[in-house]
Design goal:
10 helices; 18% strand; five-stranded antiparallel sheet; binds zinc ion; four-stranded antiparallel sheet; alpha+beta; single chain
């Protein structure tokens, strides 16, 4: 800290840190940008990191993972919120008329892989976990009953009553196959919705498009659920109204049917997976129980969470890592171990279970949307970067050039990431964020 404070370029360093918005693990870039006049070849402006503190420019890491960088994940969360919300009520280039399109909030769950400790409430009272009067004893001598009224922070929540009975392979295979199951669900939904309206899928496209935005959420037991906004548009997406016969009720009916009908197989193991029996499909309305703000906030929240809420590791696991040495609970360890041993199966190579063991087998995107759902994260980001660039121009850092007449040549090189312990403390003081030291 003292060393940094005594540097003659401390102010410049502090300025860089402020611009990262409190990023916990800023990326260090080394390089230069040169602006040339297209016509004459004259160098108009040069920026180089050689004059920056330590010869690098520190930029925000832009992760979406709150566990890695709270400041950057917050920006991602806010952008996701705007994106989902624009798809529900318009804005950011999406017409406001979209709010009149039939729209559902759908939750697709995972099936059971064995009884787990659960906290259930009824009328504000916590119920016993698994109260069974004539509970069976499993082959491992475990009575399959639990009369605990678990507290919300009980670490056993989501863990199996008997770990030896629990289908760990099934759990990680479901995570691995769930993106495919989702894809099949969307195809089946289009087919069913067309059929309900006595149309072919081809003919349906001339009247209706079905738009999606979804997030994956890890349950405490370590499997993913999907939450999705499903909206009916006219043939040209959000700009065109769907026909009157394309109703929310018909959509809900098609969702129920498609969710129950689809299967995804893991052929080498002769296993097939379906969605769990709990399916929730509710209408999103401007004034009802389920408002567009609530849905957007919900989806955005899960977009920044990954498997860490299950208590797994926040990094890739190497084949030679000693699983027993990880400071995690046995349940997470067994899920990871299942990924590692299934990952060795030659027929399952395309599931890449070893690579995604720390994610308990899930390698999909956390938040995805169909092409016509609303604006994109990229557009929101560009808008923000242009705003920042505008600020740079007005503060005299970059001269204002006409984009079309100027040739920009940039060379950038990755030069590391994170803060030293002293820098991390100073960064916290400067940006007012809890910025952890570099691991
Ligand atoms: Zn960051
Ligand atoms: Zn229990
Ligand atoms: Zn057992």
């Amino acid at each position: 800290m003292i060393d940094r404070l005594n540097q003659p370029d401390y102010d410049r360093w502090a300025n860089q840190i402020k611009r990262t918005g409190g990023c916990r693990q800023p990326i260090h870039l080394r390089g230069k940008v040169e602006h040339y006049d297209q016509a004459t070849g004259q160098l108009l402006h040069r920026y180089s990191t050689t004059t920056e503190p330590n010869g690098v420019l520190r930029v925000a890491c832009k992760t979406r993972r709150a566990a890695r960088c709270p400041a950057c994940a917050e920006i991602y969360r806010a952008d996701t919120y705007q994106l989902v919300r624009a798809g529900l009520i318009g804005g950011k280039g999406v017409p406001e008329t979209v709010s009149s399109h039939p729209c559902l909030f759908v939750t697709l769950t995972a099936p059971s892989f064995g009884a787990v400790h659960a906290r259930r409430e009824k009328n504000d009272r916590v119920l016993p976990c698994h109260a069974r009067r004539d509970a069976q004893t499993c082959p491992h001598g475990q009575v399959m009953s639990c009369t605990n009224r678990h507290r919300a922070d009980d670490p056993r929540l989501g863990e199996p009553l008997c770990a030896d009975c629990y289908d760990y392979d099934g759990s990680v295979l479901f995570n691995a196959i769930s993106p495919e199951l989702w894809r099949r669900f969307t195809l089946a939904l289009r087919r069913r919705f067309a059929k309900l309206n006595r149309l072919t899928v081809q003919a349906l496209r001339e009247h209706v498009t079905i738009a999606f935005a979804k997030v994956a959420e890890y349950q405490r037991r370590g499997v993913v659920h999907f939450h999705a906004v499903i909206r009916l548009d006219g043939p040209d997406g959000p700009n065109s109204p769907p026909p009157a016969w394309a109703t929310a009720d018909a959509l809900a009916q098609a969702v129920q049917h498609a969710a129950a009908a689809v299967t995804a197989e893991v052929k080498p193991l002769s296993r097939a997976f379906q969605w769990g029996p709990q399916l929730d499909a509710r209408r999103i309305t401007m004034d009802g129980d389920l408002t567009e703000q609530a849905v957007a906030a919900y989806i955005a929240k899960y977009a920044t969470k990954a498997a860490e809420c299950v208590g797994t590791l926040d990094r890739r696991i190497q084949p030679l890592d000693n699983l027993d040495a990880f400071p995690i609970r046995d349940h997470a360890r067994r899920l990871i171990a299942a990924c590692m041993h299934l990952g060795n199966h030659p027929g399952l190579a395309d599931l890449r279970l070893t690579r995604w063991a720390h994610m308990l087998g899930f390698r999909g995107h956390f938040s995805t949307k169909s092409r016509h759902y609303s604006t994109t994260l990229g557009e929101l980001r560009t808008a923000r970067e242009e705003h920042m660039r505008g600020q740079e121009i007005t503060t005299g850092r970059l001269p204002l050039f006409d984009e079309d007449t100027v040739l920009v040549i940039a060379h950038w090189q990755y030069a590391g990431q994170g803060h030293s312990a002293g820098d991390a403390l100073l960064a916290t003081a400067i940006t007012g964020t809890a910025s952890g030291g570099h691991p």
